[in-house]
Amino acid sequence: MTLLDRLWKDAPLATRNEITPKLGFVLTVLLALVWLIPFLWMGVATLRPPSDGFNLMAELMPSLKPTLDNVRDAWEIGDFPRYTLNTTIICAGILMVQFVTITLAGFAFARLEFAGKTLIFYLFLMQLMLVPVLLIVPNLTLVAQLGLYDTLTGVMMPFFASAFGTFLMRQAFEAIPTELEDAALIDGAGLFQRIRHIYVPLSMPSFSAFAIISVTSHWNDFLWPLMVINSPDKRPLTVGLSVFTATAEGTQAWGTIAAGTLMVIAPLLVTFLIFQKRFISSFVTSGIK
Amino acid sequence: MSFAEPAALPVANSAAPRLHVLKRYSSGFKASLPAYLLLLPSLIFLALFTYGAMGRVLIDALYQRTTPKAPVRFVGLDNISAVLADPAFTGAVVNNLIYAVGTAIPSIGLALLFALALARTNVVTSALRAALFLPVLIPMVAASALFLFIFLPNVGLLDYYIGRLLPVLPNWLGDPDIALSAIMVITIWKNAGYYMLFFLAGLQAVPEDVMEAAHLDGAGPFQRLRYIILPELKPTFLFVIVIATLNAVTQVDHVFVMTKGGPANSTNLVLFYIYQQAVEHYDIGKASAATLLTLAALMGLTALSFRTLANREGGP
């Protein structure tokens, strides 16, 4: 029995023991390898000594004398610790405020009856519909008017409320039996105590799914911070990398670009490889973002 | 009672009388006040950056304005007609349509292939899924930095390994006829693994016994794909098409890093045009008019996306 047969032994969808699905599988394996080539090149080019010369830059075979020179150069040219700090502040700041806003709003939608509930619900839905990325021009104007141009707060603010997060928490809270809250109520727990001690702890999987989606998307965000931030020392990783790439491209220092890129994407990639399952299920959930 | 073990607790029975105290409130304003207070933090930010922004786009589109200060001159629909008459805008719209179709079809097709091949969970398929999913996680800016070298003429990865087989080495990002396709490759590479996830989720809803029965009845793999799997995946398809189209309009970071819309506007996309008008030409009126037109065009699509969502909630 070949390896392929063993893989297909209890394949779902009754596709086992037939040649066509196997062809599809082989094709997928080949494409997955193709998909990895940019990452492979990034790793190889990062470790390739500049003395190998420009012509060998495209070699996917690792150099026999790997070096960290490129990493050192990238570290010196771009202010990566600063960029990383800025990105971390942005992502953490957004997430902290979002946790508060989506918990409160999610609870209101899940558990309270109030006048105009449907209308307000549709107002929230509208955020999903309006595609926030397209509203960069009016939002930049507003951020400038609020005196937040060129500040990290200005980068964060438009994302403090999240319709997607609110819906996610509403769903999570609705799944919690009301008997739990009633018991706490009889024990004299106030509204915030009930949220804090019953709803929040029981909804941790939803919070972590939301955290993964929120951090990933804001870690990777480029256009909005590019517009809001002017000072070099306030640049997040993505904006920093684009400036760095433009500089290094001029000097054709591709090994340095590879090293810089590696530094930017490594934190998320490592986190993903550790929490793979959780990432993937969060992204499936996020289809409604 | 331990809150740490929710699974052990009885699920609320809808037929049983509910003690829930909050239901005692009628729905007058005073009774609704706690809910309003809980919604207030979210509503403030939504009002500022979503509804307010929408309103400002509408107003800004009617004024000629070259600074972030108050509107200066009412020009009615002049901005709209100026945008519609601007070949750079119409070109960007055409590019964006080509880009949307040219990225959605291949990436969705590949995503379906990947999902069908990797539906079963084991060590190997998990690793393959991870490999295909990696590009989703990295910033478009980083992907662009990598692909800049891949597309570099002569010495880049593509020419080094494959380009040498061609009679003429193309300048992938420098040739107006090729640059848009080159940009599309990055998008396909980056999104196929994302759409794969939705197909994988959709495949779990395909009833195994129906597949088994069809197999016993002698239906081949293509027949089963055609008559059982694809109909079952229809809501997923609609959903992914909507996401792919929205992505085509909202993902432009690679245009910034790689081509700046060039050469000869061949890779200019609508959002990049909006950015150019606002940030490079300080023409807020024109930028707002372009935003308004784009938003209007997306409205129908997003309405569809909600219908799709509703279907999804009812189904798998």
Automatic annotation (TrEMBL), chain A:
InterPro entries attached to this UniProt entry: MetI-like (IPR000515), MetI-like_sf (IPR035906)
Main location: membrane
GO BP terms in the entry: transmembrane transport
Location in or out of the cell: Cell membrane
Bilayer topology term: Multi-pass membrane protein
Sequence intervals crossing the membrane: 23-44, 83-107, 119-140, 146-168, 198-219, 253-275
Keyword Ligase listed: no
Protein name (database record): Carbohydrate ABC transporter membrane protein 2 (CUT1 family)
TrEMBL record, chain B:
Compartment(s) where it occurs, according to its Swiss-Prot or TrEMBL record: Cell membrane
Transmembrane helix is among the record's keywords: yes
Transmembrane stretches, start-end: 33-54, 97-119, 131-158, 178-206, 227-249, 287-306
Record membrane topology: Multi-pass membrane protein
InterPro entries reported for this sequence: MetI-like, MetI-like_sf, UgpAE/MalFG_permease
Family annotation (Pfam families): BPD_transp_1
Keyword terms of this UniProt record: Cell membrane, Membrane, Transmembrane, Transmembrane helix, Transport
An example Gene Ontology CC term for this record: plasma membrane
CDD domains: TM_PBP2
ABC transmembrane type-1 domain residues: 93-305
GO biological process terms, semicolon-separated: transmembrane transport
Family per similarity comment: Belongs to the binding-protein-dependent transport system permease family.
The protein, known as: sn-glycerol 3-phosphate transport system permease protein
Species assigned in the record: Bradyrhizobium daqingense
Lineage: Bacteria, Pseudomonadati, Pseudomonadota, Alphaproteobacteria, Hyphomicrobiales
